[in-house]
TrEMBL record:
GO molecular function, one term: acetyl-CoA C-acyltransferase activity
PROSITE patterns according to UniProt: THIOLASE_1, THIOLASE_2, THIOLASE_3
Keyword set includes Mitochondrion: yes
Keyword Methyltransferase in record: no
Function text: Mitochondrial trifunctional enzyme catalyzes the last three of the four reactions of the mitochondrial beta-oxidation pathway. The mitochondrial beta-oxidation pathway is the major energy-producing process in tissues and is performed through four consecutive reactions breaking down fatty acids into acetyl-CoA. Among the enzymes involved in this pathway, the trifunctional enzyme exhibits specificity for long-chain fatty acids.
Gene: HADHB
Organism (species): Otolemur garnettii (Small-eared galago)
Enzyme class: transferase
Subunit structure: Heterotetramer of 2 alpha/HADHA and 2 beta/HADHB subunits; forms the mitochondrial trifunctional enzyme. Also purified as higher order heterooligomers including a 4 alpha/HADHA and 4 beta/HADHB heterooligomer which physiological significance remains unclear. The mitochondrial trifunctional enzyme interacts with MTLN. Interacts with RSAD2/viperin.
Protein name per Swiss-Prot or TrEMBL: Trifunctional enzyme subunit beta, mitochondrial
Similarity field: Belongs to the thiolase-like superfamily. Thiolase family.
BP GO terms, sorted: fatty acid beta-oxidation
Catalyses which reaction(s): an acyl-CoA + acetyl-CoA = a 3-oxoacyl-CoA + CoA; hexanoyl-CoA + acetyl-CoA = 3-oxooctanoyl-CoA + CoA; octanoyl-CoA + acetyl-CoA = 3-oxodecanoyl-CoA + CoA; decanoyl-CoA + acetyl-CoA = 3-oxododecanoyl-CoA + CoA
Length: 475
């Protein structure tokens, strides 16, 4: 099968048609730090549907997202998840006994707490009668936790759901080699000294080589960074474009942090350490400094570097989701409605990170909206190259016709509405927790900026993706 890279280069004689429809310099931080003017919520139709329950986000919180190996390094994932749950309880004062179900997303599981949702819930003081389960769907695990909760409420099975996600990259499971594991299991079953000695005689030093986890596709054995490099090359995304976009993300995140806009972040007293109050990966640099970094994956010609990639992050998030009538009966003023959502999947080799491109037009059509109706875009930033490649794919009739079976492109998200408070490149990306951050960012931005509709989208390992429409709750 012809790859996107090969096909693109062979079949696009006019390479300029792939150029981002914005001057490269427009991605620089200086032109993007002006906040969108706040205004009254536009008078648009609501996405409420007859005979379908309205589902609302009452509120959501997250622990500060920290660089792996820093203040959270001695904790376990359920410690962070418990902190997010406790913070949600404090923020909302929701009675624990009315929560019908708890769902958490995670990716790299701690084997001692494989159902981290249940362990965190018990640790946070929820009743042992409250069911909880854990889901995993790579970078959209929290998205899956939320939409699973939406399904339970929409079907009438539940009224009150807590959904969230957690990741602790500071302490990931490292396994013995398969040969060593097999020997240890066989030794455990051996009944006689002779059987044990016979097994031990087969031991070799290379059995001690550990199996280290990697952010790589099982089906292709390719790391996500390698895929991002190839995707950037396929869509002619330059190193400068990627660095400028990353600088934009960090600069906007720093501005939002300084202005107190990241209101979903809760303080967390780390046992035996200081209280953590803010994300620590936000580090605006300069294009000159970023240009000095060497390629991280494809050497020496790659364009993906440590500066324009999301970093390994520890953190947890949690959201309180209810049927609207239940929330109002309890006296809550919800922040937003959770409306239509879609999941997509495509080729995990050549289209690993294009989930937003495929999911966006589908969710807009499902909701009866267009790109012009969206007031706040919140897309997951795995890599600058991934975001900019999605931009170019979304703005290409050729790509829509040849790869998506669509007559026309969906269009380019306007940068003045896009990730205005920073994104995963700067705020961090705990794999299992990012989805809730995206939804809360969209909900909070709509309230702050006076918009009505937000669009959340993300890519994920396995070539999968998710998109959801968030509607502001009337003031």
């Amino acid at each position: 099968m012809t790859t996107i890279l090969t096909y693109t280069l062979k079949n696009l004689p006019n390479a300029s048609k792939w150029t981002l429809r914005l001057p490269v310099r427009s991605l620089s931080c200086s032109s993007q730090l002006r906040a969108a003017p706040a205004g009254q919520t536009k008078s648009k139709k609501t996405l409420a549907k007859p005979n379908v329950r309205n589902i609302v986000v009452v509120d959501g919180v997250r622990t500060p997202f920290l660089l792996s190996g820093t203040s959270y390094k001695d904790l376990m994932p359920h410690d962070l998840a418990r902190a997010a749950l406790t913070g949600l309880l404090n923020q909302t004062s929701v009675p624990k006994d009315i929560v019908d179900y708890i769902i958490f997303g995670t990716v790299i599981q701690e084997v001692k707490t494989s159902n981290v949702a249940r362990e965190a819930a018990l640790g946070a003081g929820f009743s042992d009668k409250t069911p909880a389960h854990t889901v995993t769907m790579a970078c959209i695990s929290a998205n899956q936790a939320m939409t699973t909760g939406v399904g339970l409420i929409a079907s009438g099975q539940c009224d009150v759901i807590v959904a969230g996600g957690v990741e602790l990259m500071s302490d990931v499971p490292i396994r013995h080699s398969r040969k060593m594991r097999k020997m240890m299991l066989d030794l455990n079953k051996a009944k006689t000294l002779g059987q044990r000695l016979s097994l031990l005689s087969k031991f070799r030093l290379n059995f001690l080589s550990p199996e280290l986890p990697a952010v790589a596709e099982f089906s292709t054995s390719e790391t996500m960074g390698h895929s991002a490099d190839r995707l950037a090359a396929a869509f002619a995304v330059s190193r400068l474009e990627q660095d400028e976009y990353a600088l934009r993300s960090h600069s906007l995140a720093k501005k939002a942090q300084d202005e107190g806009l990241l209101s979903d972040v809760i303080a967390f007293k780390v046992p035996g350490k200081d209280t953590v109050t803010k994300d620590n990966g936000i580090r605006p640099s300069s294009l000159e400094q970023m240009a000095k970094l060497k390629p991280a994956f494809i050497k020496p010609y790659g364009t993906v570097t440590a500066a324009n990639s999301s970093f390994l992050t520890d953190g947890a998030s949690a959201m309180l989701i209810m049927a609207e009538e239940k929330a109002l009966a309890l006296g809550y003023k919800p922040k937003a409605y959770l409306r239509d959502f879609v999941y997509v999947s495509q080729d995990p080799k050549d289209q690993l990170l294009l989930g937003p491109t495929y999911a966006t037009p589908k969710v807009l059509e499902k909701a009866g909206l267009t790109m012009n109706d969206i007031d706040a875009f919140e897309f997951h930033e795995a890599f600058s190259g991934q975001i900019l490649a999605n931009f170019k794919a979304m703005d290409s009739d050729w790509f829509a016709q040849n790869y998506m079976g669509r007559k026309t492109k969906v269009g380019l998200p306007p940068l003045e509405k896009f990730n205005n408070w920073g994104g995963s490149l700067s705020l961090g990306h705990p794999f299992g927790a990012t989805g809730c951050r995206l939804v809360m960012a969209a909900a909070n931005r709509l309230r702050k900026e006076g918009g009505q509709y937000g669009l959340v989208a993300a890519c994920a390992a396995g070539g999968q993706g998710h998109a959801m429409i968030v509607e502001a709750y009337p003031k």
